[in-house]
Amino acid sequence: MGRTVLVTGGTSGIGRAVAARFAADGADVVITGRRPDTVEPAAEELGVRGLACDSARPHQVAALAGELGGPLDVLVNAAGGLPARPAAGTPPLEALAQEWLSSVSANVLTAVLTTTAVSDLLAPGGTVVSIGSIGAERGGGSYGAAKAALAAWNATLAAALGPRDVTCNVISSGYVTGTNFFGDGMTEERHRRLVEETLLKRPGTPGDIAETVFFLASPGARHITGQTIHVNGGAFTTR
């Protein structure tokens, strides 16, 4: 019988690649996203189950846990992203507060609420993987600070779930193409600069991250927990 896997933010980019990797292995995969109009077509295309859930909203996360019902083998916290832009004319301090609250909500609260809600469902031998960022250690502003908080929380989570034989790790991703992360903010110059920062001289792909997640959920990774795994082509070492 295949494993049961939950991937938040599984409709596109890294989350979608992770869902596809586990589905290809025969897992019973559930993906989430904030909007039904993105969740439903993605789930159909991947051949997985899809549930609309805003992982930053406690009542929706509680409902998600109820929908899952049975044992859960793998949880991948892939929901996240850059902060929402404050409306034009917002006073500077109010805009700053909105930015930071948005970053923490999208990148920390989503993982904390989801993991807490499904904690009792996690089976012995289970795995929790949260998608972090190189920005946590390289001056990423409010987004980077939120990803640093994610890693700090993961250390506490690993200590709490370790006695139940559940591993908990963070993947520190770098520049990954094929996602909606940058929106319209990516230029050719910026692309070249980010690629040049890597030791491998190529950007990452969602598949690179998905394969690492898959490994962390494999029998060969059962003694890896409480860690931040850098998957960024060596960019972390160049600055």
Structural description of this entry:
With about 240 residues, the protein is of the alpha/beta class. It has one domain: NAD(P)-binding Rossmann-like Domain (Rossmann fold), CATH 3.40.50.720. It has helices at about 15-25, 35-45, 60-70, 90-120, 140-160, 190-195, 205-215, and strands at about 5-10, 30-35, 50, 70-75, 120-135, 165-175, 230. The chain has a seven-stranded parallel sheet, sandwiched between helices. Helix 4 runs parallel beside helix 5. The protein is globular. The relative contact order is 0.14. The model has no long low-confidence stretch (mean pLDDT about 95).
Question: Into how many domains do the coordinates divide?
Answer: 1
Sheet having the most strands: 7 strands, parallel
Number of strands: 7
Mean pLDDT metric: 94
- Low-confidence blocks of residues: none
Helix-residue proportion: 40-55%
Protein name: SDR family oxidoreductase
Domain Ketoreductase: 3-179
GO biological process, one term: fatty acid elongation
InterPro entries: KR_dom, NAD(P)-bd_dom_sf, Sc_DH/Rdtase_CS, SDR_fam
Short description:
The chain is α/β, with parallel strands linked by helices and 239 residues long. The protein has helices at residues 13-24, 36-46, 58-68, 92-118, 141-161, 188-197, 206-216; strands at 4-8, 28-33, 49-52, 72-77, 122-133, 167-173, 228-231.
Descriptive terms for the model:
239 residues, 7 helices, Rossmann fold, seven-stranded parallel β-sheet, globular, alpha/beta
